[in-house]
Amino acid sequence: MEKTLDHIGIAVRNIEEALSFYVDILNGEVLHRYTSHAKGVEVHVAAINVQGDLLELLEPTNHSSPVARFIRQKGKGVHHIAYRVNDLEQAINESKENGVRFLEDTYRTNHLGRRLIYLNPISTQGTIIEFCDYPNQ
């Protein structure tokens, strides 16, 4: 199955401070902002288009969110790389047939209609990878 780069998630401590770089220096355009209160997510998100590439700035909303833990352990910076697939269920099944493990509790549909799941970093040499699709588009 074809997999194409969808977006890069970037962990930040403060979205307002980070936005100035991505908008003023990289000439990015803020597409939308929202807050996810879903358990195990808990972030403020700013989606930015930089010359056709999508970046998502992720600011934790509490000290126990996964992004807050990530920042404590690794610091600010690239949190995950998301790949768009044609059919998320099929991509999961094909990957599992090849021994890839997933973080099953991360499977969800966000408020934009994007279905997503994270691969277990054990299967990706330590990189946090997201598979996603947009079934309603």
Automatic annotation (TrEMBL):
CDD domains: MMCE. Keywords: Metal-binding. Coiled coil: none annotated. The keyword Cytoplasm does not apply. InterPro entries: Glyas_Bleomycin-R_OHBP_Dase (IPR029068), MeMalonyl-CoA_epimerase (IPR017515), MMCE/EMCE_epimerase (IPR051785), VOC_core (IPR037523). It comes from the Bacteria. The keyword Metal-binding applies. Residues 4-134 form the VOC domain. PANTHER family: METHYLMALONYL-COA EPIMERASE, METHYLMALONYL-COA EPIMERASE, MITOCHONDRIAL. Belongs to the methylmalonyl-CoA epimerase family. This is VOC family protein. It comes from Pseudalkalibacillus berkeleyi. The lineage of its organism: Bacteria, Bacillati, Bacillota, Bacilli, Bacillales.
